[in-house]
Amino acid sequence: MQVCVLGAGTMGHGIAQVAAMAGHDVRLRDIERSYVNDGLDAIRSNLDGGVERDKLSADEADAAFDRIEGVTDLEAAVSGASLVVEAVPEDIDLKQETFRDVEGCADEETVIATNTSSLSVTEIASVLDSPARAVGLHFFNPVHIMGLVEVVLAEQTDADTRAFALSFVDDIDKTAVEVRDAPGFASSRLGVALGCEAMRMVEEGVASADDIDAAMELGYRHPMGPLELTDVVGLDVRLDILEYLREELGERFRPPQVLKRKVRAGNLGKKSGEGFYVWEDGEAVRPADGDTGGDGA
User: Fold this and answer.
1) What is the 8-class DSSP label of residue 253?
2) Is 12 labeled as ligand-binding?
């Protein structure tokens, strides 16, 4: 099957990788060649890491990488694809524009999916002439490691599209949870609620960021604490999600002031080198100044 992934960033290149590892031919598209190359480099690094950890053979890694073609032309990317997954930034207007552009190039039977983590799939799909073929496929970061995909059914999604989406998730060796299109779906709504409360605990000096995270990792067996996860996702992304959920669901999703301050200061988490933690060489090395609890938290 031909799969097209739009956006070669963290989520996009991860989706392209797992589709290729499942044996699909993949076109990975972004608006600039440098972005495409960065995505391909990240895939190569992930595959090489898998070989080093004996998760796959060198031949399997090479075969998967060879199934991925990097392109910048949208029509070339979409042509002949059975599935198009957009992984562009979390902006409703941009996602709708992308859906419109894809429909103008895609075959009539092509399924068009969005990787949005919280925006309304129904609203994104509303711009299509044939919205019944739209669905949400919400992957989790890092895509090649995380086993979950939320299959989000828009109001317009028909039975054939639903069946196709569930079959695709199974085919790429992921586990699907099926949810109806509601603000934040299941995972984002619960995840940001936990992260939001953890931020308020930092604000109030209840405990340091690393102690709060340790409590959830050791006490509840979370693989990563809510504040470190916020850094990995991006504080700006979390802020956008909270603002959207506040608008849709009310004041319980009001963003904490500490989050707003950090975003205004450009402290966006792992990608900027500092958020609730200071990051060096891709690792959280210590809580950021002022996030250690007590009166200065």
Assistant:
1) G
2) yes
Number of domains in the chain: 2
CB 93 within 8 A of CB 81: no
Residue 25 is assigned to a ligand binding site: no
Other beta carbons within 10 angstroms of residue 22's beta carbon come to 18
Do 8 and 74 lie in one domain? The reply is: yes
Residue 205 and residue 118 in one domain: no
Q: Are 278 and 210 in contact (CB under 8 A)?
A: no
193 is known to lie in a ligand binding site: no
Residue 11 marked ligand-binding? yes
205 assigned to a ligand binding site: no
> 131 and 27, same structural domain?
yes
The Cα–Cα gap between 82 and 84 comes to 7
Confirm or deny that 49 is annotated as ligand binding.
no
Would you say 30 is a known binding-site residue? yes
The domain of 130 spans 2-180
Residues 162 and 226 grouped into a single domain: no
Report the alpha-carbon distance of residue 286 to residue 279 in Å, rounded.
8
Residues 234 and 157 in one domain: no
The pLDDT score that the predictor gives to residue 292 is: 54
Does 175 share its domain with 58? Answer: yes
pTM, rounded to two decimals = 0.84
Q: What is the mean pLDDT of each run of 10 residues along the chain (297 residues)?
A: 96 97 98 97 96 96 98 97 96 96 96 94 97 97 92 98 98 96 87 95 95 96 94 92 92 95 96 96 88 46
Instruction: Please report whether residue 295 resides in a domain.
Output: no
Task: List pLDDT tens digits, range 114-165.
Answer: 999 889 999 999 999 999 999 999 999 889 999 999 999 999 999 999 999 9
Measured CA distances, 182 to 101, 139, 140, 156, 160 (Å): 25, 17, 18, 13, 21
Q: Would you say 282 is a known binding-site residue?
A: no
The answer on whether 90 is annotated among ligand-binding residues is yes
Boundary of a domain, candidates 134, 158, 180: 180
- For residue 8, say whether it is annotated as part of any ligand binding site: yes
